[in-house]
Known about the structure:
single chain; mainly beta; 22-stranded antiparallel beta barrel; 46 strands; about 55% strand; membrane; Beta-barrel_TonB; cell outer membrane; receptor; TonB-dep_rcpt-like
Amino acid sequence: MRQKTGLTLSVATLAQLAAMHGAQAQTAPEAAAVNDKGAVVPEVVVTGTTARNRTKLESSVAITTVDQAKLEKLAPHSLADSLQQVPGLWVEASGGEVSNNVSPRGLSGGAAFQFISLQEDGLPVIYDGELVDVLMREDVTIKRFEAIRGGTSAILSTNGPAAIVNFISQKGTQKPQGEVKVTVSDYGMVRTEGVYSGPINDDWTYAAGGYYREGKGVRPIGITADHGGQFRLNLTRKLEGGELNLSAKYVNDHNTFYLPIPLTNPGNPTGVPGVDPHYGSLDGPDVAHIRNQTTNGVIDTNLNTGFHVLAKVFGADLQHELGGDWSFRNNARYTRYDVAPHSVFNGPNSYLVRASNRLDPKQSSDVAELLKRFGGTAKLAYAGTGQIINDPSTLNGNGFTTDAVAETRFRSLGHFIDKLSVTNENSKNSFTAGVLFASQKLYDDSDYGARIITDVRDQPSRLDIVAVDASNKILGYLSDKGVLRNGYFYERHKGDMKSLSYFVNDEWKVSDKLRLDAGVRYEVARYDVQDEGVQAAGDDLPGDSLTGGAIIPGALNPDGSDKDNIIANNYMRRAGTGVWTRKQKTIKEASYTAGFNYAFNDHVATYGRYASGTNMPTLYSTDSFVDGASRLSFTEAGVRYISPFWTTSATLFHTKFDNLSFGETDQATGNFRQVFVKTLSTGVELEGVVNLHKRFSLEYVATLQKATIDGIDPNAEEAKQNGNQVMRTPNTQVRLIPTVHFDFGDVFLVYSHIGKRFADFENALALPAYHVIDMGAEIHLDKKWKLNLKVNNLTNEIGLTEGNPRSGFNQSSNGSLFYARPILGRNATAALSYRF
């Protein structure tokens, strides 16, 4: 277990020490703000509405707002982690800083950000949401974010019928101001970030900032794979009757992507000898460079590079009055990014085997082929040193080995999006019509993987399976420096997609109390994608999943005999043919909605809505769009109460996701199995804050739902799954944040309860309910200096966010062990910020 530093001292004790050193009074109630007469100050929102100066109380959508102050207080580990403040969303943030999963209103977990439009200053970061949290990073240049669930999201955005999450960045100011912040952790992370804004002249202002971070990660892998940052610039020109904002962003960041690890006892998950469930990882220095022979040469899976993104973003947003109640806005952005994830993925649970079984030729056909060719006895050897392991039953205290896949993906994409709208607004009505154009150019999307074998422990070692004689002399190798199969994965795609959609939204103030709204969007998306042909062992090529395939150039003699005594360096399981298959498709879909808001008085309002919207396919293979768009339909009704003492909202919802594809690839055969389903979810979302006393407040966020699978063809093999709980998503989530307000700042707890889930489509492997307790303090040292302290997962809970996605529709433990991904172990951060 890793060594801890003094950051894990009691946060409350540190807060008391700060108070003794003369901190200034900074009580900050979290319910509705009030003016000097005690009246509630309306909070204006810009997301989910086309009207200006629409307050949260007047809004007909379920909306959550989180400002920078709250983000600094809660210190989320990732962008996905920050969304745990939004009810209705199930957040799986156990993957580290990037490539996490956020599922809305009963959608199965593990779907990345599907059905959610993650936006930056009113525009989707990326049209289809693929790898969106790699491109969008939260730092002090973000002013706040607004999140709507359902509502008008299907009308006002593409590919976000379930939710819009809009991150709003800092703009320039006429008065120079800024913030510098340094964060350190007990896991070796140091992060520096800052923002500065001020005038260029009377008309132009600017805001610039970003972050740089290095760290070993909560699950250290023996190398510094977390390093990099981003820079953002906003230039704002005030116009007579309008505003022009020019923006630029540069992202160059590397992250470790955490994957499932071996555990035991699914009902009460615990670690296995050699693998720490809190801080362990199957990444490490010995597997940091895996060389994979492919049709396109040697590909190096490089964990030092990690999950790398390089992005350049440029935008222009013009808003202007046209006179006579008319105005227009044109918001456009171009993004050019390259993403290169390097990871070692676990295989299905069946890959976790006792070493003695892995060496048994009766249980492992590749070992049988090794012994048939070289004779002798099969043994394991460390690939790095060649040392023979004579008694593998005691290996690392568990006696297991595992096959895995070292995978590298290269994706290069250009993305342009432009949203033009015209609005006519008066005291009674706000009418908006607009058009949104999106274009994606996929220059390259290549996926390469090699099958490897390692021992089972933190930061594991590569193994070789060898044939030895009676004196332990090596006669031949099945594997090559730990690589069992070159070309285990091989896919290449390229293409482009263009989307043009027209939308209309009208908000009508019927009376001082009643508002009605309705909207429609019609979208036409055209796909033109090419896939490179692939030949695979056991399909087009001789051999099977474990041996045979396409010959690696130079591996064999002219007569077909092997040049050395290594089997693995002779063949590629999958090889590109150089022949590209092209598919084109046009998809046309309509989305529509109608809603209302009725305000009883200045404190209480009710709202409701029906909507039906679509989520268009991605363009990353010719198979991705052949089945058309998925559709989401929902009904919701809620009530909102706002006062200085208590601010709350409750939303009832019924949601149907239609034409969802669930699929699995058999890791042994490469065969793909797919089924289309509906999911139904009925529940309630709760959020609010109660100021029980000037010294104490309680914030709460909860989602209670019943989410089930439905609509499978009765004649299909999978029809028996109708009625099952959707996989990976809990029916119960509760988050409580009690806060004690002192003169020097706040001390708080965060309690989260996550209900029971199922790891698989067939509900065969249950993931037990768990709870997490965090503790933190915000200490105002004076009017400019602030110290934020946070300890996450105080009790070191082993909570599983997912089972093993690579074990298919039915997951079960392999004897005593199974793969799953736990939440991050106890960790602490301290952030010192200076505002000027």
